[in-house]
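User: Reviewer 2 asked us to show a designed sequence for the structure in our supplementary figure. I'm pasting the structure tokens here. Could you produce the per-position amino acids so we can include them in the response letter?
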């Protein structure tokens, strides 16, 4: 599935996909589709997605905040793909920001590179 490509890109940047982040799911309407963009948006909203129809001409962007590494996420994207296909649409994948854990703050250092805090702590 397409999720593997995005996860591979995340991993290359030090992100394991487990942190909650802003996720965009792209659904594209094809000729002969059985529902309009506004009807697709109404199908998505009860599942917790935010949909702004002005953001994507010819399709819908469903937005949410979540992790992208779990089997639950894979199940969700498969459900979106099935829902889209059944209505003459295509689930075109997702995108998200890279979320890397912050580096630990360096220890307080003295002028010679040793920690005064550690040296003089009682």
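Assistant: Here is a per-position design you can include in the supplement:
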């Amino acid at each position: 599935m397409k999720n593997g490509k995005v996860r591979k890109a995340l991993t290359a940047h030090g992100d394991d996909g487990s942190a909650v982040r802003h996720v965009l799911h792209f659904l594209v309407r094809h000729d002969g589709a059985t529902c309009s963009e506004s009807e697709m948006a109404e199908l998505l909203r009860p599942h917790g997605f935010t949909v702004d129809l002005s953001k994507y001409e010819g399709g819908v962007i469903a937005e949410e905040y979540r992790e992208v590494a779990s089997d639950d996420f894979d199940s969700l994207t498969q459900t979106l793909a099935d829902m889209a296909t059944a209505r003459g649409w295509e689930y075109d994948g997702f995108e998200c920001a890279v979320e890397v854990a912050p580096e630990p703050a360096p220890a307080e250092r003295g002028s010679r590179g040793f920690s005064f805090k550690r040296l003089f702590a009682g």
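For the response letter, you might also mention the following. Residues 3-120 form a domain with the Alpha-Beta Plaits fold (CATH 3.30.70). Confidence is low (pLDDT under 50) at residues 114-122.
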